[in-house]
Amino acid sequence: MWTVVYMAQNKEAAEALQKLLEASGVLVKVRPINKAPEGEANVYEILVPQSEVEEAHNIIIDGGF
Q1: Would you identify the CATH topology of the domain 2-62?
Q2: What is the pLDDT of residue 26?
Q3: Of 1, 15, 47, 53, which has the fewest CB atoms closer than 10 Å, so is most exposed?
């Protein structure tokens, strides 16, 4: 089961966090909250497998997010 571990306020933050987690070996999915038109602000959910939630939280905190 996938679990939301972070809500990114824009696409750039979501992509940066995805790269950080993937570099640490964590599986990641990024999902927009709503269907904002291209170029408009959107909020993104960062999801990881439930078994990797604790590790992902530690990486997020250490990464300064």
Answers
A1: Alpha-Beta Plaits (3.30.70)
A2: 96
A3: 1
